[in-house]
Amino acid sequence: MRPFPFDQQTEAGYVGPEWQERTGVAQLAQVLFRKAEDQFLMLAFYGDGSGEHGNGPFVVAGYLADSIDWFHLECDWERELKKSPSIRYFKARECVLRQQGNGSKEFSGEFFGWTTDAVRRKCTAMAQVLESYSPRMVAICSPMHWDVYHGVVGDDVFRQVFWTPYLFCAHGAIELALKKSNEQFKLYRGPVAFVFDTESAQLDADTRQHYDLAPNHLPSDLRSRCGSLTFTDDIKFPMLQPADFLAWSIRAQRAGQESPWVDTIFTNFAGGSHEIIMRPARLREIIRDTEDKFHKEYPDWKSQQVSLKARKKKK
Question: 231 vs 60, 103, 149, 196, 272, CA distance in Å?
Answer without folding.
Answer: 14, 37, 24, 5, 25
